[in-house]
Amino acid sequence: MRIDEEIQSSKFEDNYHKLVINIAYTDSWLSNTFRCKFEKHNLTQQQFNILRILRGQYPKPATVNLLKERMIDKMSDASRIVDRLVQKGLVSRCTNTKDRRAVDIRISDAGMEILARMDTEFKTKDLLEKNLTVEEAGLISDLLDKMRG
Question: What pLDDT does 90 receive?
Answer without folding.
Answer: 98
